[in-house]
User: Which sequence fits this backbone?
């Protein structure tokens, strides 16, 4: 068993518990929303939010993994700043303290003295996710070789909206809490290649009577010749690439929508959340996820990318792959890497997937996408 992978899964389960706890009471949830500062904004949205749930989840993941693996502590990176400003204008750095009582005291400052809410959140943050048995054989990767990317709550907008009655088409939800994911991925520091990943879906199903949500998670390990995952799936060498199904963002460029629409016909879907769209590919609900813009980031992709690699697929830079194809380069698969920032970029854009992306389970489907989109400008 990989102890690091088990720790990532446990951290994702704790994160999912916190995310669900923060949505149980509408009044509490309204206390948890704070607009992001300008330099932290994702330019894709007119209004972009961070929530205390986001920050608390991220800090819980960093705390738990860092405590178990000290070599990893300085190499766990996330989307969110842990600095919050309360109603009195006080700047507070959110963190997981040594005791639940200390964490509750800190959170009460963020929540303007709401001790009941702070205690509930501190309890979720300190609760153990329990022991897990993952069938990963004896594969071990030294923690000193790894870096970790965390997206504490991907699709924050859907999390805030809280739509619970979204109806899936072909298994794919276009919106709603089902599109919310917790994403954790580990990559090799020297090469930037992803090796372990977890995608946790905190709101996978809702009990019609109690209205309580339950979640599910998926993990993958891809290191050297070892490819393992929770889907108990191995790469299928016989893939029909003549037919293609895809999931896109509703904000995708018209030219991409048009060309993929012609290739996919009715098997084209639109959904919220980069992590969720990756999950649709991981689960085999669609063949590919294509995004031509530069508004996804390393934390969105590292975990799902590792799982896709374990399935025989991957995730590539769309524009670079198209450029290589036009130039006839032998290796047209420009895999996304996670250890280096974008040259000349600033703020969150340093970690953007600047060339867009294609997530795929089969290289045959990647080839089909590049063929379909080969007329796009680089």
Assistant:
């Amino acid at each position: 068993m990989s102890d690091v992978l088990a720790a990532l899964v446990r951290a994702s389960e704790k994160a999912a518990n916190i995310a669900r706890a923060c949505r149980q009471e509408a009044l509490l949830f309204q206390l948890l929303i704070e607009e992001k500062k300008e330099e932290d904004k994702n330019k894709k949205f007119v209004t972009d939010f961070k929530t205390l749930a986001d920050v608390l989840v991220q800090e819980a993941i960093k705390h738990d993994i860092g405590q178990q693996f000290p070599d990893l502590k300085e190499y766990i990176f996330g989307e969110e700043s842990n600095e919050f400003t309360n109603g009195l204008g006080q700047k507070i750095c959110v963190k997981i303290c040594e005791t639940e009582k200390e964490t509750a005291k800190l959170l009460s400052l963020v929540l303007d003295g709401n001790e009941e809410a702070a205690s509930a959140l501190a309890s979720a943050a300190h609760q153990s996710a329990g022991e897990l048995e993952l069938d990963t054989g004896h594969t071990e990767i030294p923690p000193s070789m790894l870096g970790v990317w965390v997206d504490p709550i991907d699709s924050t907008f859907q999390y805030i909206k809280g739509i619970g009655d979204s109806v899936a088409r072909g298994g794919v939800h276009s919106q709603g809490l089902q599109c919310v994911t917790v994403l954790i991925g580990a990559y090799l520091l020297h090469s930037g290649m992803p090796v372990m990943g977890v995608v946790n879906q905190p709101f996978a199903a809702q009990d019609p009577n109690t209205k309580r949500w339950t979640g599910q998670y998926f993990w993958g390990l891809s290191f050297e010749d070892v490819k393992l995952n929770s889907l108990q799936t191995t790469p299928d060498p016989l893939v029909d690439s003549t037919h293609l199904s895809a999931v896109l963002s509703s904000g995708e460029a018209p030219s991409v929508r048009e060309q993929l629409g012609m290739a996919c016909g009715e098997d084209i879907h639109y959904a919220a959340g980069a992590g969720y769209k990756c999950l649709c590919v991981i689960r085999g609900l669609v063949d590919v996820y294509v995004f031509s813009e530069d508004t996804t980031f390393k934390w969105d992709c590292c975990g799902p990318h590792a799982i896709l690699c374990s399935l025989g697929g991957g995730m590539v830079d769309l524009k670079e792959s198209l450029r290589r194809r036009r130039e006839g380069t032998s290796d047209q698969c420009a895999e996304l890497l996670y250890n280096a920032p974008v040259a000349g970029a600033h703020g969150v854009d340093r970690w953007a997937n600047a060339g867009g992306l294609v997530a795929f389970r089969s290289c045959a489907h990647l080839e089909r996408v590049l063929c379909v989109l080969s007329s796009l400008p680089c």
Summary: Residues 3-130+142-229 form a domain with the Fructose-1,6-Bisphosphatase; Chain A, domain 1 fold (CATH 3.30.540.10). Residues 195 and 224 are 9 Å apart (CA to CA). The radius of gyration is 20 Å. DSSP finds eleven helices and 15 strands in the chain.
